[in-house]
């Protein structure tokens, strides 16, 4: 039986992923801010086949609470096969340009809170010498673009952090998976006009589970984003400066 | 997927604000103008539209709440699809008590339209198997409704077209099955009289009966068709359940309707003759048996940008043979034809809803590409036949029935109207209650 922990469990991608693990009969530990939504989700996942569902509330920006939470998780589950770090927001770029305070807060939510939590959890994975730490970064972290570089820079931090950690933990049998979703049709992106590039949360969730199963290092979801980002990364600066993206 | 804010017939067009609901504990969102719950957009006409107002998109409220594998009692949020229920319960030996011809309907939509299926003569409507639901009104009140508790709200909401408030969650009673298999028998019949004989001979021993009729043929071939009767089969442990097959989709809306008199006649003739023997027995998976069209995503696109109209009526038993003959003759003579003409005998189980459509008699469901005034005129002629016979037309499939006929078909409409939430309305309701 797989033991799966999801941070930011009530996000659309995380919930779809949790359902896939529940259908396999996994044991789940859900973490998010809203207790009511955690309870609803736990009921749902039990019906869908989860062997057991634990949950605890946490605001990821309350870094001092991380250690206690991790203690609770390991006490409940014994060990962890998959830790999925999925929390995040989609900050308004223009507002982040107008307010230093907001910019730093959003950077914390999308970047440093993950660095804090994962740093704290690493010794436990080192001790168990197995498992997957899967972190949701974003294609936005591959190159800062004027339309959302605050979010992009936080995700770039996650990408670089998880890359280094992967190299380190590979030696003890722990896999670090960096997940880079493209546009996903979720409540977080409700205000956007949707086109052909948009994926359903369920599609992304299937990609996450497959990548975790197969011990992949970096995945773009859906896969065609690998190509799109390859092109975007290679646009020379003198061109990049003149276009809007 | 149909576009949010569109109905399955893609006619008529409506402009409305869409508000997404994800939390069943929350109050209804504030909206200017009227609101209407919207599930998965499988109603054909304008019963799921609210032109000029707001749609409460309830499909994302899709969580299960509890499932008792011993008793088959399932509680879930109103946005859960029948397909999701089947995925969960069939491997555990349970099945939907009643299902319409698509599994892509939400539980809330099934309640609001009090849907029926091929087992109506045995099981009645879906509402018959709803143990209770929670009704949230715009004044913030929540009522648990069941046949015992708030029975008047229960009766108003089942088949109540989403107008009495928002159903947030519901508890339904499933039925036992041994596995996913059906054993079916398929008969070819030459005319409507033979259909009635077959149906009568089958209703006692077969849980599911339905017929397809050829609506393009006239003269001697008038009313010929194919009759299917089936039961859930015993377990076939040696047969591997189908792997979920990759669905094909109609990728784009055809610029013109692909359904025209020529293609209709060809299709109907081929379909009628597709089996060589006049009787065949088969064991089949429940998916193709119940949901033949669900295998083709967005099939409504073949009707082109103007969409199509469904027409489903029921006529009382005493006049059903004559009336069906008149209807089929009128359709065949019009050349409008229908590609999916479905005929079924309803049983005499009383429907639980004030506005429920199913009632004793024979029901005929047809679809017509929208060719404008000609199509509308034909449907008006059909209304005259159904109205004179004392029958009724199904609101979930309607985009055009005149108010006077609606009021005749559903005499409870006036007492029902007292249960409508003052903030709720729909395009259909404004049209038929004027």
Automatic annotation (TrEMBL), chain A:
A GO MF term: oxidoreductase activity
Family membership: Belongs to the short-chain dehydrogenases/reductases (SDR) family.
Matches recorded under InterPro entries: NAD(P)-bd_dom_sf, Sc_DH/Rdtase_CS, SDR_fam
Cross-referenced SUPFAM superfamilies: NAD(P)-binding Rossmann-fold domains (SSF51735)
Transmembrane annotation, as ranges: 218-235
Name of the featured protein: Short-chain dehydrogenase
Gene Ontology CC terms: membrane
Presence of the UniProt keyword Amino-acid biosynthesis in the record: no
UniProt keyword Magnesium present: no
UniProt keyword annotations, A-Z: Membrane, Oxidoreductase, Transmembrane, Transmembrane helix
Pfam families, per database record: adh_short (PF00106)
Automatic annotation (TrEMBL), chain B:
Superkingdom per UniProt: Bacteria
Matches recorded under Pfam families: FAD_binding_4
Keyword flag DNA repair: no
Tagged with keyword Flavoprotein: yes
GO MF annotation list: FAD binding; oxidoreductase activity, acting on the CH-OH group of donors, oxygen as acceptor
Domain FAD-binding PCMH-type: 11-177
SUPFAM superfamilies on file: FAD-binding/transporter-associated domain-like
Keywords: FAD, Flavoprotein
Protein's name in the database: FAD-binding oxidoreductase
Provenance organism: Dyella solisilvae
